[in-house]
Amino acid sequence: MSMHARGFTLLELVAALAIFAMMSVMAYGGVSALITTREGLDVSYERLQNWQLATHRLRLDLTQVRERPVRDEFGDVQPALHEPEEGRLELTHGGRRNPLGQPRSTLERVAWFLDTDGSLIRQSWLGLDRAQSEKPLRTTILEDIETLEWRFLNSDDTWVEDWPPAQLAGTLPQDLPPPRAVELRIESKRLGELEFIFATGVEA
């Protein structure tokens, strides 16, 4: 008995192509969903990492506050830590890195504030007592910030909205101690309201 080779009919080919196309679409959709999920996770991880670095940097500044007042560009003496205007925090901290062993102080004057574009900015100066012509170094720490507020823990364990507080308003800048702790209340467009408390290491 002879056997004859049998080919695919046109209908079978069309059905096979339709099934293959449908499986390809399903496979592409799955791969696309995986890629989108991966990209979303990468963005979320990067955002979380930025917040961790920001809070770590602020913690280093505040935990190493030094009772060293400075002279501003107008020659006026400013406290070691104070809030010269709403939302702006200026302080002197220790632990400034000096990898090249240059003959300079390990103290640094910095400021933290919210810029008009919603960026959290850290400013720093090369010297503690600055000249009028000196330009600070600006570093953008975080973006998409809506509000920023500071609070300060007094020596009697009372939180106050301003530093120096009213009861210390007449104290000379060189005699004004830093607060025991600083609280940061910050509202992010993506993460909502957040609150951080940083001890300054100042004894009661």
From TrEMBL:
Stretches for region Disordered: 82-101
Matching PROSITE patterns, A to Z? PROKAR_NTER_METHYL
Residue ranges annotated as compositionally biased, kind Basic and acidic residues, are 82-93
Q: Name one GO cellular component term.
A: type II protein secretion system complex
Q: How does it sit in the membrane?
A: Single-pass membrane protein
Transmembrane recorded as keyword: yes
Cited Pfam families: N_methyl (PF07963), T2SSJ (PF11612)
Task: State the superkingdom.
Answer: Bacteria
Q: Name one GO biological process term.
A: protein secretion by the type II secretion system
List UniProt keywords, sorted A-Z: Cell inner membrane, Cell membrane, Membrane, Methylation, Transmembrane, Transmembrane helix
Report the locations given in the UniProt record: Cell inner membrane
Q: Which InterPro entries match?
A: N_methyl_site, Pilin-like, T2SS_protein-GspJ, T2SS_protein_J
Q: Answer yes or no on keyword Hydrolase.
A: no
Stated family: Belongs to the GSP J family.
Q: Name the chain's protein.
A: Type II secretion system protein J
Q: Which organism is it from?
A: Oceanococcus atlanticus
Tell me the lineage of the source organism: Bacteria, Pseudomonadati, Pseudomonadota, Gammaproteobacteria, Chromatiales
